[in-house]
Amino acid sequence: MKPIYSFLLSVVLSFILQVNVFAQRTTVSGTVRDAVTKETLPNVSVFFKDTKIGTQTDVNGKYTLISPDPQSVLSFNYVGYRTVFKNIVPAATQEFDVALVPDSRALDEVVIVGGKKVKYRNKDNPAVELIRQVIAHKEENRIKSYNSVSFRQYEKMLFSLSNVSDKFKNKRMFRNYQFLFQEQDSTLIGGKNLLPIYIQEKLADNYLSKNPEKSKTIVIGEKQVQFDSRYIDNKGLKTYFDRMYQDIDIYKNNISVISNEFLSPIADGAPAFYKFFITDTLKNQKPEVIELSFTPRNTGDMLFEGKIYVTNDSHYAVTGASFGVNKNINLNFVRALKIDLNFEPNDKGKYSLSKSNLLADFGIGKTKGIGFTGERSVTFKNYQFDTVLPDTIFQGKSTVVLADAAKKDDKFWEKNRLDTISKNQLKIYGNIDTLQNLPSFKRTMKIVTLLFAGYQNLGPYEIGPVNTFYSFNNVEGLRLRFGGRTTPELSKRYYFENYLAYGIKDEKWKFFLSATYSLNNKSIYEFPQNYVRASFQRDTKIPGQELQFVQEDNFLLSFKRGVNDMLLYNDFYRLDYVKEFENHFSYNLGLKKWSQTPAGGLNYLNSNNQLVNRLTTSEVSLQLRYAPNEKFYQGKIYRVPIPDRYPVFNLRYTAGLKGVLGGEYNYHNLLGSIDKRFYLSQLGYSDVTLEGSYIAGKVPFPLLDIHRANQTYAYQLNSYNLMNFLEFVSDHYVSINIDQNFNGFFFNKVPLLKKLKLREVLSFKALYGGLRNENNPNFQTGLYRLPVYENGAQRTYALGNQPYMEGSIGVGNIFKLLRVDLVKRFNYLNNPEVSEWGIRARVKFDF
């Protein structure tokens, strides 16, 4: 009975303790209004007096404030109004509405409007007229209006786990490392504890020229936390954070924040999407400054809300800004977002940005649970305008990192930082090194890497990817696979990769072996790559299945629709040389011998109706790729691109060599593609791919372009989702692929759908091509017959006079992760085993 008694006693004590804690909590909510006009006031600062616990009212003037301790006084502060202190009941839940009285010392006049609420409109609205003047004078106030500019820039980026509970803080793995935690003091974020996990600093000199338009950045010093490269790509992590937290230029029409494009409050079309209000006039400075508050017309759109400060003179320059986003915005995982911009007057009589600060807090829940906070502050000093800049400054790359930039010592940073940094923040560099040496932390990182990257690191060798160890298909039946690769711990020059697989049904072994030599003494998984690789692979492949960021024998791809019994047994002998450059131009020289044997429902029949058991080709190839300003995260298997507005160009030439290494055909294949993302402001973004190919020479259908098909239930961006494997082949084609994401622009206008934060998606794909008579077995002898089904029905076709087309309409952001498309195939519907409609799903993590 003693254990039961102890258990019941602990439950009772725990309950009493929780009741006591709850009883101490003070919760206050209410609405803040103008005492004269009765209008609700957004962005009013509300605090428990003498604490750092505070919040701001939303666009409707509402607030909620919670303290775990008893509180007795609330303070309300708003520019242009008298500060108000109100007594409240300690340790209670209550509603408290407040009316703020305008401060006559700050406002020139107060206009009292009686009767019913006046509907907001742009016409005859002085706030809108003012913002239109700001828009009209944007070009003269931008930094690019000068003939030349130079300045020094210091930036600091800090990331932490936020809202950390005492329970998490006191876990056994942190028991002896309480120094890692810091007190959370931001009024935008709840909770008490922070666990800083990352910090980076950068000092750079910047140069701009107007005519001709040029820019140059010289990075003098940079410093960042370094994680164990076995688990985390430090360069990729820095690149990802830099993409999320870009420079904030309020004079641009669109501002990029957290990988999304937000319409600037002074964009050309801002009055159509924002409401503007003149909330204060600051007359104690010259020139006078007018405070403009703005809110989105629709609170779910990708828009800001806050205040900007504008000079009341003929220049209408922005002197400051403070804004964030509405809590109802269609933005995933963002608990709070705050941007502050400060401008200072210069000797030219204009205002230049002196400091910007961007803070964002992320979490699964809106208020509860551990979150992730990132803050980037940038300081600008030493401006020089319209000075003569020598042409030599702009020679070479637009961004140059000095050779010793990452080697600057503490004394350099103490002397050259343009902003203050606290002792606690400086400790992060050493604290993270200490954390990474904890055995429990190392175990956690191994588990995380296994779950998300699919590899288990064993030191010199890592096993994986684990999601390929089990799969199945109609030819092989159950397929088992096991393999891995060496790591830089074994050698930074030599790398080996292998796997072994076995099909239960076909009773055949498959395997892969490769050896790679790094020519630049760097890991072959780091940018820029420069290596030579020799490999041999004996394995299966579905003709026409081309995947991105997924292994072909991934277990989830085992589930397919329709007839799926075609397979190739392949032997690949390859020799490749890969060279990448810092400007993201690369080339790949390759030599390949390929022997293929059809299996399952696929047969190779020559013009005499005889079975061909094996087809062998030998190829040399040259592939060129140029991706200016490309950003990516280097994963264990793939480079995961970080989307941006810059295009990616690909060009590949392949030549078949008859009589070389057993090659049976001469041919030439030229393939080119362009990928580009277009940002469309409030209409989201559109991903567009243009592609074309031409094959010269007489070849059988296995060597033609077998168009990318998809018979899985997953939506694949670069495949035709209602085309069957090997349904179409061509020796020349052009194609276009458009994937339009509206980011909820339309759903945000529908009251019932608005709260679900769904996003609309449209896609269209068209493929136009065909077969010349010399490659069409219906017109030419000496070629393989096009495949047929068991009942004799035609299985593979050449495109006719009309292009193959399919499109889809989809709903994205379901549960913040899922996209579901209704796909329609528009033509070639009389082909056998064809579906006109289909439903496909795709998992996508996006903010």
TrEMBL record:
Pfam families: CarbopepD_reg_2 (PF13715), DUF5686 (PF18939). Gene3D superfamilies: Carboxypeptidase-like, regulatory domain (2.60.40.1120). Keywords: Signal. SUPFAM superfamilies: Carboxypeptidase regulatory domain-like. Residues 1-23 form the signal peptide. The keyword Signal applies. It comes from the Bacteria. This is DUF5686 family protein. It comes from Pedobacter vanadiisoli.
